[in-house]
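FORM 7B: Structural annotation worksheet

SECTION A. Query
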Amino acid sequence: MTIENAIRTCLNLLAEVGVGNWNVCVVEDFPENPTHMGLCSYRARTIYLSAKWLDDDAEMLTTMRHEIAHVLSASDRDHGEHFEQALSLVPTQVTCARDFRIARCGPQVEPLP
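SECTION B. Predicted structure
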């Protein structure tokens, strides 16, 4: 999956569950935890995805769904019942693709702010 495709797919999944006004950014790494695949930041209203996993479409989609569930459950740490309910609302694939304009997307992976 390309950086642009990852961002577009995640934005479409957010739109499908009725979430707008959030950003998606692909980062090179998460320095505080290099094994992380994604991160949901309420402060920045951004889902960050690790570029390390772009080669694995299935894992990237699973990560997108996981981070979107954090957006829906309004919790960045909890993985309890409310999170599981939110996860069940996130589609497993994009069913109605919208053409989002991707800003600052190119060969360089954006760093965390």
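SECTION C. Observations
The longest helix spans residues 57-73. The beta strands are 23-27, 38-41, 46-50.

SECTION D. Sign-off
Analyst initials: ____
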